[in-house]
Predict the structure.
Amino acid sequence: MPKLLIASVVEGWNRLSRQKQYDMFYGMSAKLVELPQKTTGSVLPVFSTALGAVFNTDCLNLFASLNDESIDTVFADPPFNIGKDYGRGKDKDELDGQDYLQWCYRWMDEAVRVVKPGGAIFIYNLPQWAYHLAAHLESRRMTFKHWIAVSMKGTFPRGKKLYPAHYALLYFTKSTPKDLQP
């Protein structure tokens, strides 16, 4: 059965009880199951069950500690580079367009490296960036499967910005996709 792997940068995650983390993650109460550490080297999970693990680290740190072709699925929801201030000042997500794309290409190349043959990469982003990201994945010999349009309600002008009517969820696989049925 595929395992779920999440790199989390949620503020305060480590301060929550393990049961509270589980409840937030799965939306229910259940018994926690500890997983043995395998391929993560010095990056340790802050939470794990038989279904997978949650890591509170930069994804590049986590990817660097993983073996090639060791992950079934990568789901990425990176900052959208729209100037949002996440409340920590220096972490305002506003890079030059090329710098943002180069940063994305770095973690995407690592995602391609760690995904198993038949595995999948999903990337959630604005259409403005998604077409660049899709082209990069194709250049890395990933197979395009779908551009899923996630419809957004209440898309109207706000100040000087017009928010998009949809967000993109890119779906790529490494070679022939695995059957996701148990």
